[in-house]
Every structure is written in structure tokens, then in C-alpha cells.
Design brief:
This protein has about 450 residues and is α+β, with helices and mostly antiparallel strands. The chain is about 55% helix and about 20% strand. The chain folds into three domains: about 150 residues, Beta-Lactamase, CATH 3.30.450; about 110 residues, Orthogonal Bundle (Helix Hairpins); about 150 residues, Heat Shock Protein 90 (2-Layer Sandwich). Strands 4-3-7-6-5 form a five-stranded antiparallel beta sheet, with helices on one face. A five-stranded mixed beta sheet has the order 9-11-12-14-13.
């Protein structure tokens, strides 16, 4: 498998490569512009020489002549570094003065002068042709070798490119150091993660998460710590759930086993029936306890992925109420609803909302004991809030008992007397309400007799 590049190598490549390409393009453009203007200067000097030669063409009795002696022409076209050539040509092509055979490309019509690169006596020359009409029509050609131009271009190349290459090399070296230094906290974070054991979910050291040189690496360290915190909470909740299940199921399962052993040791069918009824009650209690433990575990985990959506709370309450009708009739409880026909929408989660109602109704049917027991599920708009209530006409609770029963594993006097429940129902309701952004309260029933469990959505 092909090895992937390190982040440092990729960053350096993505920074240095465009930098080198842009530098090369910039240098090429700069040298091209410099060469162009240097060539303009050389061409202008060559054209000035052609004008100087043309100014010395005169007419005499024999026709046009160049009014310059050879020494004067050498002085006029003197150059310390280049070899100079000239020719004065008539329209017929005849040579009036100068070097025979110096023939540049013909000028286009209506063009006063033009430059060209020619070859003369096996030498590469740069020439200018100047066409004149006074005192007669003629053409002056002045050409020179290009050694000075080549040397000037080489010097520009040397003086422009070499310092920039050195600066570029220094910049690449500096970038490598800076990038390596800025990525060092990332490498330290990686080492810290690698050194953690399988069971070690403690946060990363502060020197790793807060000592980073960039905000991105610091955010990554913070995100890793937040993930470790979530994992730790999840594992803690799982361990707590497993411990709770093991602890709370031990008693009902032991009772079921004891009743089964007792029934097996007797041959009386009446004893068998009695013990089977006890086993059924123990199984029901164990199932109820497992459901509550699962609900509590769900509440501990739900905050990580909970999404609230609009839900018609009156419809959810009516559905739960109908499911509990048969149970209420069997227990002799008058179960009814109040305000469930009017559509009331809240932001909630259907599973958590139903879980709250199930636990509240189960508690009301189990502990709201009265001469003529009544349980009412109500939904009401009060101001800008929605109030979901489950009210019974039982003995009710004092404020101290209400505060106590909202805690996990807190079992009230009725529960201890009946030997049922695990003290989780109201704790589940309280936790669900917290996740839904609602308030949960235990109040005295409006009639003054009984308990009213209220969940308020704002």
C-alpha cells in the first residue's frame, strides 16, 4: 500500500510549489520587460546613428554624395564594444557609400524606418533601415553586432535571478521551520493520544490543549477532550446501569427461585397455585424494574442525539390513557382525561413524552389509593406555557417527601408498605423533563386531596 504524505510535507508542498511557480513566472516577465526596454535603448541609439549618416548626404554636380570622409564616418559610428557597419543605397539598389552587400529586408511602403536581424560576413547583426526623400530618395542602413546586448541580458539575468534564488531558498527554509514549529502541538497531541491506555478516558493535559500555537490545533484538543468526556459519561452510565440491574434484580429473582423451590417441595396444588401467583408477581416486578432501568439509561444517553420536533401532546396523552383503561378498570380506578380533545403542540420527543406519562400513570394507579380512586390526565394552555398533569385523589405527599421522591432509588412510604417499585419512576420523569426543556413539579391536587404531578412546557 502506498504511504501517504505527512501533513507537514503536504503543507510545505502546497505552499512552496505555487511560490516557486509564481516566482519563475514573475522573474520571466521581469526579465522580458527589462530586455524589451534595453533593446529599445539600443535601437534608439542605432536609429540616431542612421539619422546622423542621412544628414550628411548632399547633392553636387555629379549627383548624391556622402559628405563624410572615412575618419569622420569612423568617429560618427564609433562604438567601444560593437563592430559597426553602414551602407547608403539608392532606390535602384546601387551603393552610394559604405559596405557592399549589406542588404536588410526591404521596408514596407510609407514606412520611415525599420529594424531587422541580418547576417553579414558570417556575423549576426542587428540593423536599422532609414528611408529618406531629401535631398533625393535614398536608404541608410546601419548595423552592429549584438555582443553588448547579450552581455547586458546575461548581467540582468545574473543580478536579478541569483539574489532571488537565494531569497527563495531562505524563504523555503524559513517556511519549513515555521510550519514544523506550528504543527508541533499536533504531533504532541498525537503522542498523547497514542500513550493513552484502553481504559484511560481522562482529558488531555492542559499543556497539549491550551498550549497550541494555532486556534485550530487548540480546538482539536478541546474536541478530543469533549469526546473523551462523552465517552466517559457513556461508559459510566453503562456501568451504573449494569450495576443497578445486577443489584435490583437479585432480590426478585431470589424470591422467584425460593418460591419455585418451595412449590417443588410440596405436592399440594393449593400451595403450587399460591407460589405460582407469587412467581408471577415477582416476574412482573422484575420486568417493571428492567423497563425503568432501561428508561433511565435512555435518559442518560439521549442528550447526545436528542432532536425536538412539534408533537400534539393531547394525542399522545389520549393514546397512553386508552392503553391504561383496562388496567385502571381492573384496579377499580376511575381513569379520565381533561382537555385532550383540543390540539396542543409542543416541541418534544415522542418516546420521552410517552415515557413520562407512562411513569406518572403507573405511580398514580399504584400509590394513589383512595375510597373511590380517581386519576385524571389533563392538558392545558396557561399563558404561553403548556401544562401536562396527572392528578389522583390519594393521600398525597408533603413537600419534603415530594423533594425526596424526585431522587433515584428513593422509595416512599406507600412503596415500602406495598413492597413494590424501585424508586425510579419520578426520577425518570424529572430527567425526561430536563431533556425536553420542561419543568417537573409535584403539587397538591386542586381539590386539596391527593397529588398532582405537573410537567410544564414553556
Amino acid at each position: 500500500m502506498m504511504l501517504k504524505q505527512s501533513l507537514r510535507s503536504r503543507v510545505i508542498k502546497h505552499v512552496v510549489l505555487p511560490l516557486v511557480v509564481l516566482w519563475a513566472l514573475g522573474t520571466t516577465v521581469a526579465l522580458g520587460v527589462a530586455n524589451y526596454f534595453a533593446g529599445q535603448a539600443f535601437d534608439r541609439s542605432l536609429l540616431d546613428d542612421a539619422y546622423a549618416v542621412a544628414a550628411n548626404v548632399r547633392m553636387d554636380s555629379t549627383g548624391p554624395v556622402l559628405n563624410l570622409s572615412p575618419p569622420e564616418m569612423s568617429a560618427l559610428l564609433f562604438d567601444q564594444t560593437e563592430s559597426m557597419y553602414f551602407a547608403v543605397l539608392l532606390p535602384s539598389g546601387a551603393l552610394l557609400a559604405g559596405h557592399a552587400g549589406l542588404r536588410p529586408p526591404p521596408l514596407p511602403k510609407e514606412t520611415a524606418f525599420g529594424f531587422a536581424d541580418i547576417n553579414f560576413q558570417n556575423r549576426a547583426l542587428h540593423s536599422v533601415s532609414l528611408h529618406r526623400y531629401e535631398p533625393t530618395e535614398f536608404t541608410v542602413v546601419v548595423a552592429q553586432t549584438t555582443a553588448a546586448r547579450s552581455r547586458l541580458l546575461q548581467r540582468m539575468l545574473t543580478y536579478a535571478v541569483v539574489p532571488q534564488v537565494l531569497l527563495l531558498a531562505f524563504l523555503v527554509w524559513w517556511l519549513r521551520r515555521v510550519i514544523q514549529r506550528d504543527l508541533l502541538p499536533l504531533a504532541e497531541l498525537q503522542r498523547a493520544v497514542d500513550q493513552k491506555g484502553v481504559r484511560d478516558l481522562s482529558p488531555m493535559p492542559l499543556s497539549v490543549t491550551t498550549g497550541a500555537s494555532t486556534r485550530d490545533v487548540q480546538r482539536l484538543g478541546t474536541a478530543v477532550n469533549a469526546m473523551l468526556q462523552r465517552l466517559s459519561e457513556s461508559i459510566t452510565a453503562q456501568r451504573e446501569f449494569a450495576g443497578n440491574v445486577a443489584h435490583e434484580l437479585r432480590t426478585p429473582l431470589a424470591g422467584i427461585r425460593a418460591q419455585a423451590d418451595y412449590a417443588l417441595a410440596n405436592s399440594d396444588p393449593a400451595v403450587w397455585r399460591e407460589q405460582l401467583q407469587g412467581i408471577a408477581r415477582g416476574q412482573q416486578r422484575a420486568s417493571h424494574m428492567v423497563e425503568q432501568l432501561l428508561g433511565l439509561a435512555l435518559a442518560d444517553e439521549a442528550h447526545a442525539s436528542l432532536q425536538l420536533v412539534p408533537i400534539a401532546i393531547n394525542e399522545v396523552a389520549r393514546d397512553v390513557l386508552l392503553r391504561y383503561m383496562s388496567k385502571a378498570d381492573a384496579a377499580g380506578v376511575d381513569l379520565g382525561g381533561d382537555g385532550l380533545d383540543e390540539r396542543v403542540v409542543v416541541q418534544a420527543d415522542a418516546a420521552l413524552l410517552e415515557g413520562m406519562l407512562v411513569n406518572l400513570l403507573d405511580n398514580a394507579l399504584r400509590y394513589g389509593v383512595a375510597v373511590k380512586p380517581q386519576v385524571t390526565v389533563g392538558v392545558r394552555h396557561i399563558g404561553g406555557a403548556v401544562r401536562l398533569s396527572v392528578t389522583d385523589n390519594g393521600p398525597g405527599l408533603t413537600q419534603a417527601e415530594a423533594d425526596q421522591l424526585s431522587q433515584r432509588w428513593a422509595l416512599g412510604a406507600a412503596g415500602q408498605r406495598l413492597g413494590e417499585g424501585a424508586g425510579l419512576g419520578l426520577a425518570i420523569v424529572s430527567r425526561y423533563a430536563e431533556l425536553l426543556g420542561a419543568r417537573f413539579n409535584l403539587e397538591t391536587a386542586p381539590s386539596g386531596q391527593g397529588l398532582c404531578a405537573v410537567v410544564t412546557f414553556t
